[in-house]
Write a structure and sequence with these properties.
- This protein is of the alpha/beta class.
- It has 10 helices and 6 strands; from the N terminus they run αααααβαβαβββαβαα.
- It is globular.
Length: about 240
Amino acid sequence: MDVTKELNDILGITESYRAPDALMAILFDRPRREAVFKQLLELFRYEMDKEWFYEYFQDEHADRKLKKQDFTPQSISNLLAEIVHDDKSGMRYEPCAGTGGMTIATWQKDRIQHTPFDYQPSFYFYTCEELSDRAIPFLLLNLMIRGMNANVVHCDVLTREAKGAFFIQNDYDDYMHFSSLNVLPYSQDVEEHLNVRFTEQIYPKHIESSPKLIRHYLDRLEPVESQAKVEKVEVGQISLF
């Protein structure tokens, strides 16, 4: 199977260098996005435990010269997932996430600890940070198609200079649903929460989750903090609104 050609056909492009821009446009169009997600699931035979774009991205989009980008082999991702699995908090963090290979390995390890009857996506929350403009669309896709709850921060993990941030949520807390895409506002509250400084504003306002659907994530916080955050969401002070 020529994955490159198949993937380019799904994205509606003829040249692979166009993939990041084409994919980002698709992600902001929910009906088209979910149709593409279903095509990708068929293309990759529903093998959700693996990062699908490793070879495609590294061959076509990795910036090895300037950003020294090389991607973590699956075996190393699996090993690191085993190491961090002792953390029972349910909070996971991956700096320099690339297209999300280590987060996918950790997610796989997390979810197989449960049966399909008791697993809920809200049990875990993933934070991924990445600098590359080209990697961000693939990272978002990888988290959303798996129904994760996550923050994705487009930033330099050392200087904390950022171009934008996303909140990815499985609105119905159901592993059979894809996640929604929300662009966090370019506000001081968000900067403080994520410990970043916005130096560019390259993403449009885009909200898919509602205050009611966001509650299942907020309720996982400490009771006092949760109530404060719910109140702020309802009056439009922080988070998405």
